[in-house]
Amino acid sequence: MALAARLPGSRRRRARGARARRESRAGLALVSPTFVVVLVMVVLPVLWALVLSFQRIRLFQVRSVDLIGGEYTLRNYDLLLGSSGFLEAARTTLLYSVFGTAGSIVLGLAAALLVRRSFRGRGLVRAVMLLPWVAPVVAVTFVWQVLLSPQFGFVNAVGTELLGWDAPIPFLSQERGELSLFGIGIGVPTALLVVIAFESWKSFPFAFLFILARLQATPGELEEAAKVDGATPTQILRHILLPQLAGVIALLAVLRFIFTFNAFDEIYLLTNGGAGTQVLATQVYAFLTARNDVGAAAAVAMFMAAVLAILLFVYVRFFAERERERAA
Amino acid sequence: MKRRGSLRYTIEVRALRVIRPLGIAFFVLVCVFPFLYMALLSVRDISEVIASPGTLIPPLDQITFDAYSRVLRSVEDGGEGFGRFLLNSAGVALGTVVVTLIVSTLGAYAVARLEFFGRRQVHFLFLAVYLFPPILLAIPLFVAFSRLGLRGQLPMLVIVYVAQTLPICVYMLRNYFETVPKSLEEAAEVDGATRLQIIRKITLPLAVPAIAATGLFVFMIAWNEFLFALLFLVEDRQNWTVSLGVSQLKNVETPETTLMAGSLILTIPIIVLFMFAERLMTEGLTRGAEKG
User: Fold this and answer.
1) Whether residue A87 is found in the same domain as residue A33
2) Domain with CATH 1.10.3720.10 in chain B
3) Any domain includes A112
4) Is the Cβ–Cβ distance between B83 and B204 less than 8 Å?
5) pTM given for the model
6) Best interface-test mutation with A: which of B132, B151, B177, B249 has the largest number of A CBs within 10 A?
7) How far is A234 from chain B (nearest CA, A)?
8) Which ipTM score applies to this complex?
9) Is A30 in contact with B114 (Cβ distance < 8 A)?
């Protein structure tokens, strides 16, 4: 740049053109390994899964069968749309994703607001609050299982010994339970609520981190001014903090929804899809391993991808663009 | 807005004075208790746990480390062979870190610094990786690796993990590179340094903290990963990772205390790592979010 500035006009332009070409080549060269890995390990597999979803392939055939040629059929999709298990799993996935996302964001927001001001030990508290998110999913699902176990779990021990429960609650294997509130019994999907609670617990730190970072980057003047005017804490939250957090919360909602919608480990490890918690991801696994049906598994997985793609399209189309217009 | 002396103001400020410490205590308890419970249960005898499930702290004379020796001993010695799994996990995680860091540093530098065709479309790559369910990718990869006879191989797992962690690394490192002033590099360029020399001599040394943080993050993801390990490795016990090993403990008749010992062995490396580098890691992740 410094060199180019000293050259007369036309030579400078030519020099800039050569430099831009060189820069473009270097950029492409440096980014190509990333591109190749994503292409080979993500893009091509997705396309291939699309092909597989239109074929009848059993797991034991994968070594021998003609994978690209072969017959194409709509059987897998036909089968799914007619099966009650699939529709049930789609419904459960939706509930799990919506409430899991909402739960993690609400908890994350609460935690971020609580530790916003500095106090002694704040750094440690902040680090501790991230534990559920960084810990291995296998380990934490097992602790929850043991904690909630009807035979020797701590939660049921406290419930029956101190809280006066009639009997231990099989939290992870009970599909419908009865919650008694003021003498009125309400039917609740016990196991589904527990996996939603687990998901909220495991991923609230993610929301917490992003909301806290955003909170700490907001200018304090507005809040100070409101305080001088006598605004109460809830008024400040409602009129000053939440509007500033709207963008990051919307982004978190999208990210968490995608992650929760795709989540497999949590449900597979907690309930293995039993007791009314079968989601689409665990159903794909069941098709693949228990029924050896590669085609049907691919069809369910493609359905998941299609749902997310549509939702994301809607989000970008209606929310992100409106956001940009408002900023402009 | 109401005046400072209003009743609502007084009530809210007083309530908050109580709610804040209680709320913080609640979150700390909820976050720490499961891990504490894991540790406490792992040193008890299962029959004693069944007899008194409400007891948290075992009598000192009943503490036993049998669960740990059972988990760590090799299969030949009647154990579960976790020593081997720890090595496998460490190897896979470190391999993933090295490959991902090399590839993503180059990619992130290009996206942050160089104007090239397709630069603005790079985020579609991230979308591709995180929008599609891992279980969707698992199907064709399972089929392909089975056909090539490579499915149980640990290097295959490394490649899958690299693909899963690359986009987030490019994102984290790009955010960092954008905070480094361009003028240093431009000065070097005027002095006739080539692009690779600039990256190696100037950009990388400055980015060491960010690269370390990103590497730790990748290590964590690879160490914790479960789905691909389950699908690719489950048939060959020799190649199990710790996550897979712990999950398979449950399928055999294993007392829950042993399960907790295995879980703790799986968790401790991550917690130690995290306590060292928590600040570094989380700042890298949220650097882009502060703008809103």
Assistant:
1) no
2) 81-291
3) yes
4) no
5) 0.89
6) B132
7) 8
8) 0.89
9) yes
- Cα–Cα dist A154/A240, whole Å: 42
Cβ neighbours of A153 in B, within 8 Å: 53
In a domain, A281, yes or no: yes
The confidence score (pLDDT) of residue A4 equals 45
Chain-chain contact of A231 with B1 (C-beta, under 8 angstroms):
yes
Q: Are the Cβ atoms of A152 and B53 closer than 8 angstroms?
A: yes
Pairwise CB contact (< 8 Å): B53 & A261: no
In chain A, the residue whose alpha carbon lies closest to the alpha carbon of B241 is A138
Shortest distance, CA B182 to any CA of chain A (angstroms)? 11
Q: What is the CATH number of the domain that holds A254?
A: 1.10.3720.10
- Does the domain at residues B81-291 carry the CATH identifier 1.10.3720.10? yes
What domain range includes position A156? 75-327
User: Is residue A304 assigned to a domain?
Assistant: yes
**Same domain, yes or no, for A111 and A169?**
yes
Tell if the CB–CB gap between B107 and A33 is shorter than 8 Å: yes
Task: Verify that A266 and A134 share a domain, yes or no.
Answer: yes
Chain A residues touching residue B226 (CB < 8 angstroms): 136-138, 265, 269
* A309 in Cβ contact with A208 (< 8 Å): no
Residue, of B43 and A218, whose pLDDT is higher:
B43
Shortest distance, CA B202 to any CA of chain A (angstroms): 16
Taking one residue from A and the other from B, the number of pairs with CB-CB distance under 8 angstroms is 308
Shortest Cα–Cα distance, B76 to chain A (Å)? 25
Weakest-pLDDT range from A17-21, A42-46, A84-88, B31-35 = A17-21
Residue A101 shares a structural domain with residue A7: no
Least confident of A221-225, A242-246, B89-93, B243-247: A221-225
Report yes or no on A211 lying in a domain. Answer: yes
d(CA B131, nearest CA chain A) in Å: 7
SS (H, E, C) chain A: CHHHHHCCHHHHHHHHHHHHHHHHHHHHHHHHHHHHHHHHHHHHHHHHHHHHCCCCCEHHHCCCCCCCCCCCCCHHHHHHHCCHHHHHHHHHHHHHHHHHHHHHHHHHHHHHHHCCCCCCCHHHHHHHCCHHHHCCHHHHHHHHHHHHCCCCCHHHHHHHHCCCCCCCCCCCCCCCEEEEECCEEEEECHHHHHHHHHHHHHHHHHHHHHHHHHHHHCCCHHHHHHHHCCCCHHHHHHHHHHHHHHHHHHHHHHHHHHHHHHCCHHHHHHCCCCCCCCCHHHHHHHHHHCCCEHHHHHHHHHHHHHHHHHHHHHHHHHHHHHHHHHHC
Give yes or no: residues A214 and A124 share one domain: yes
- pLDDT of B29-59, one tens digit each? 999 999 999 999 988 888 888 888 878 888 7
